[in-house]
Amino acid sequence: MGVGHATVWRDEPAPPAGRGVARTGVTVIDIGGNLFRSPVPAGGAVLNGAGECTGFLAAAEWGLVETPIFLTSTMQLGRVYDAACELLMEEEPGIGADDVIIPVVAECDDSFLSDARRMQVSAADVRAALEAARAGIGGPAPAEGAVGSGTGMSCLGFKGGIGSASRLTPSGHAVGVLVMSNFGEQERLTIDGVPAGRLLPPAEEPAAATPPAGSCIVITVTDAPLDSAACVRLARRAGLGLARTGSTGHHGSGEIFLALATGLRAPRAAPASGALPITGRGLDPFFAAVVEATEEAVLNSMLAAPTVTGRDGNYSRGLPADRVRELLAAAGRL
């Protein structure tokens, strides 16, 4: 799996002279290979549906994903979708001829920090993120925090963004999780069971506006031989990981989860072959891995992000790592 980012950070004069303040971007997750010719089993789940993920219904119907995963901000989703279609058609002449595709594009709202009234993301940004994802396959862990689609996100009263974590199951299979975190209030921030949000001081200068309820996209990828039904069950467990950090699934929040498994990957329109799918109690270690990795990925998204100031002077504070360490030590967690 590879993860690539294109960060759009712009401070231009107010329109019409420029495009205002941009704290946004694109993040792409690509598992490698030609997904149009050889899609992977997939399944999704929704904790609260005030959000959008194109391709989600097709994945639920067919149990397959046939494009990389694209993440961006709410008002940029259409631009990213268009660019994804164009880029994938460049590579694969069968798209639009043999069959069409529905790219998977998911979003969170970054309008607290970024000017959402301007179309800030370009096709060049989508191309850059896709190329970076492919270059990163098999490489080091991806950048986290205020990068790519996570540039303008806020989480649990602090700066959020992109976070990742992984676990190795007893069977030797890897389970990787990537989140785009953008939800919750400080008072609910919980770290390893410690009510850190209530113990940390509030912002010295409250922001002029209150961040929206927010959302969280969680993408899980495993190399295990799981079918689409098992992927749905894996995806659903991401909600437990969010709850551990303090999420309550606000009315206006979009928690959308997708899980992909490469162990039963097969050519398009051909039956999967090879290992038998893992089912039943054999999935329990994978469930635990998703919960733990989701919790860690959310915290990583915050710990990696500095304070970011955006439009209208709004800002999201970076989580104070030293103070958090002190709280965890005092609670006997270190």
What's the layout of helices and strands?
Elements: E1 2-11, E2 21-30, E3 40-49, E4 53-54, H1 56-62, E5 64-65, E6 69-73, H2 77-91, E7 104-108, H3 123-135, E8 154-155, E9 158-159, E10 161-168, E11 174-183, H4 196-199, E12 214-222, H5 228-245, E13 254-261, H6 284-303, E14 308-309, E15 315-316, H7 321-330
Parallel strand pairs: 6-7, 12-13
Antiparallel strand pairs: 1-2, 2-6, 3-5, 3-13, 4-7, 8-9, 10-11, 11-12, 14-15
Helix pairs in contact: 2-3, 5-6
Shape: globular
> Unreliable segments (pLDDT under 50, ≥5 consecutive)?
none
Multimerization state: single chain
**Count of folded domains:** 1
- Name of the level-1 CATH class: Alpha Beta
CATH superfamily: L-amino peptidase D-ALA esterase/amidase
SSE order, one letter for each helix or strand: EEEEHEEHEHEEEEHEHEHEEH
Portion of residues in beta strands equals 25-35%
Count the helices. How many? 7
CATH fold field value: L-amino peptidase D-ALA esterase/amidase
| Rounded mean pLDDT score | 93
Query: Fraction of residues in helices?
Result: 25-40%
Which class do the helix and strand fractions yield?
A: alpha+beta
Q: For the CA atoms, what is the radius of gyration?
A: 19 Å
Distance between the first and last residues' Cα = 31 Å
Largest sheet: 6 strands, mixed
